[in-house]
Amino acid sequence: MATSKVLAGAQVVLPTGTVPDGRVLIEGTRIARVPVSGAHDTGATVTDAETVDLTGHWVVPGFVDLHNHGGGGASFTSGTVEDVLKGVHTHRLHGTTTLVASTVTGEMDFLAQRAGLLSELAEQGDIAGIHFEGPFISPCRKGAHSEALLRDPDPADVRKLIDAARGHAKMLTLATELPGGIDSVRLLAEHGVIAAIGHTDATYEQTVEAIDAGATVATHLFNAMPGLAHRAPGPIAALLEDERVTVELINDGTHLHPAALELAFHRAGADRVAFITDAMDAAGFGDGRYMLGPLEVEVRESVARLVEGGSIAGSTLTLDRAFKRSVTIDGLSVEDTVRALSANPARLLGMYDTVGSLEPGKDADLVVLDADFDVKGVLRKGAWVVEP
Description:
Blueprint: E1 4-14, E2 17-27, E3 30-33, E4 50-53, E5 58-61, E6 63-68, E7 70-71, E8 74-75, H1 81-92, E9 96-103, H2 108-123, E10 129-133, H3 155-164, E11 169-174, H4 181-190, E12 194-197, H5 204-213, E13 217-218, H6 234-241, E14 246-249, H7 258-268, E15 273-275, E16 288-292, E17 295-300, E18 303-306, H8 319-328, H9 334-348, E19 366-369, E20 375-380, E21 383-386
Parallel strand pairs: 1-4, 1-5, 6-9, 9-10, 10-11, 11-12, 12-13, 13-14, 14-15
Antiparallel strand pairs: 1-2, 2-3, 5-19, 7-8, 16-17, 17-18, 19-20, 20-21
Helix pairs in contact: 2-3, 3-4, 5-6, 8-9
């Protein structure tokens, strides 16, 4: 029988609010009991439990990353199974207990092959599914994707990737204004795959049409799309104003000006923002030269840019850094930050019944943060990844 754990003394962030001096009981892989919000916790002592004193710390749900290309020197697009697992573990060390593996633009047969490999890891529970970013994106807004490999979103090609993922395709980013875009959005919705609008040159009106067809996510809002203009509001305004859309934000201090983040967060509201990493191999690893798909990237002072052209090429972000920045620099509340890092992406993925919040019966996935919001412990399914 698995050993029970009592995490005692921390500020515990629940869906209903933060409980000071709370006690969380873990039994096996699940959360058995949490403190009651708004009241001093007097939960009964579990005699055979290991008690961990977390006085002066925070306990928050494990982070959920919707959009992540790699880490620890490893790529989810081109690495071996061992490489992918290394990248996943790197992000777990930083509090990401649920991760969707993202690919970048490649040949269709290659992407289908990668989907087969990643689906095996999803079946094992190592990743939460697959996100295809490209090749169905606009050459005008390609970012760090190979223009030679881009193509219009033919529904037959989209279906090929869905089938190759064997039920583990979670999201696909596409420029919905391209030929076949709207039909592809409808196809994705019919198959329970999130249609994400991104790397797009769409107008406001074209974006509204895509949302009405079933698109529900803005891939890294502001980045790789037309800017907000007073006569041509473009996709940003349409994505921010529609209650059906969750907006991804990369809060690393490079991708977004703080004023843009504030605009998005407060216009969309705390329940419609998902902080992501869009991380590439260098996350948790260091500066140097890397490959992102077929393109060479140089990481200097933790900023990744294409060697040719200088476009930003993903990030080196980990979600613990996004958490700390949100609270200490952007002035967001801990509770709203938890929504953006855990609850909202979990709901979007259809996983909120098991992850995304600290509630009895859910997976024992949680992060221990000190008073400065640095990671001091990570628990995944009841086992310490980082022991406090």
